[in-house]
Amino acid sequence: MKERLFQRSQVNFETTVMTKDGNFTGIMENISLGGFFLRINKRIAVGEKLVVEISLQNDLRNANIITNATVTRIEENGIAFKFEEMGHYNYWTLHSYLHYLNA
User: Fold this and answer.
1) Strands, E assignment, the chain
2) How does pLDDT run across 38-67, given as a tens digit for each residue?
3) Which domains does the chain have, with CATH numbers?
4) Which long-range contacts (CB under 8 A, 24 or more apart) does 11-14 make?
5) Residue 101's closest CA among 2, 9, 15?
6) Is 0.85 surpassed by the pTM of this model?
7) What is the SS3 assignment for 50?
8) How far is CA 25 from the centre of its chain?
9) Which of 72, 97, 66, 68 is nearest to 85 (CA)?
């Protein structure tokens, strides 16, 4: 099995995806600097590019990032997303959050 470029962190919080058909909320199960997996009933086509709003939650504070993502895989229980052009602020906000989770 191919080794992952970015370590995944297990999480459990609501995340909103904004598609051309409207906004949908699901439960994020894991996240890394490369992307995330969202448990959601809505089916979105593989390759679709969309905007995601993620509320990063921890014991110290909450931080929101809004960024672009692409659907890479659809499974029975949800959808895998890859981050696209995250931007400097969002990248470092997520990086700090993941560092906190894995400390």
Assistant:
1) 9-19, 22-31, 35-39, 49-57, 62-75, 78-84
2) 999 888 899 999 999 998 877 767 888 999
3) 9-102 (2.40.10.220)
4) 11/57, 11/101, 13/55, 13/57, 14/55
5) 9
6) yes
7) strand
8) 12
9) 68
